[in-house]
Amino acid sequence: MNKSELIKTLAEAKNIHVDEAAAIINSFIESVKKALADGDRVEIRGFGSFKVKDYRGYVGRNPKSGVVVDVSPKKLPFFRPGKELKEYINQP
Amino acid sequence: MSGKTLTKADIVDYIYEKTDKSRTEVKVMVESLLDIMKESIKKDHALLISGFGKFEAYDKKARKGRNPHTTETITLPPRKVVVFRLSRKFRAELNPDE
Fold first, then answer.
1. Distance from C-alpha of A65 to C-alpha of B92, rounded to nearest angstrom
2. CA-to-CA distance for A88 and B8, rounded, in angstroms?
């Protein structure tokens, strides 16, 4: 499923206009992204949690050509599925 | 790192400010949305949210594990796990100087 299908499914399930469903989903994602960009944790009970990890920069090497490259520091978000999601996914 | 945590209630508040629905209605919508997301991850093995990332469910094979306390060997059953892969766009937003 992609975002537009998600919007359509929510609109049908809750009997609301697709524009309204789109606004809800976009605001949902926006709030999560904003929090992560600020370095905050996100915890959605029953679904999972997100945390941004900071990686230091380092001098790496292209394993194929041996060329030395600078790998710059980066921030990457990590998702940990919640207990309910894990159990739900594993139900037959 | 500010040490704050965004919770479901905060997300509901955020959406509430942007719509003309009541807080209770928004809460119901969010719960429904999360259910749909979970169903999609289970059924399609993937949920793609452009500009954010992709949730993927994949199968892990059974493997032998060990209880580190009793050193007893056990077989861990095959199971499904969910991973999140972030989109290029979101990665770029988190790392503006890259």
1. 27
2. 19
Which residues span the domain enclosing A24? 1-40
Return the DSSP state at A2: B
ipTM above 0.90, yes or no: no
Q: Which residue has the tokens 């861990």?
A: B76
Residue type, B2: S
Tell me whether residues A41 and B33 touch, CB distance under 8 A: no
Contact A76, B90 (CB under 8 A): no
Which residue in A has a C-alpha nearest to residue B48's C-alpha?
A: A2
Residue position matching structure tokens 């594993």: A90
CATH assignment of the domain containing A48: 4.10.520.10
Select the residue of A20, A52, A72 nearest B94 (Cβ to Cβ): A52
Instruction: Measure the CA–CA gap between A43 and A54, rounded to whole angstroms.
Output: 19
**Sign (positive/negative) of CA torsion B14, B15, B17, B23?**
negative
Q: Are residues A20 and A62 in the same domain?
A: no
Write the CATH number of the domain with boundaries B45-98.
4.10.520.10
Q: How many domains, chain A?
A: 2
Taking the complete model, does pTM exceed 0.90, yes or no? no
Please list the pLDDT of chain B residue by residue as tens digits (98 residues). Answer: 457 999 999 999 999 999 889 999 999 999 999 999 999 999 999 999 999 999 999 999 988 888 888 888 888 889 999 999 999 999 999 998 76
- Are residues A54 and A32 part of one domain? no
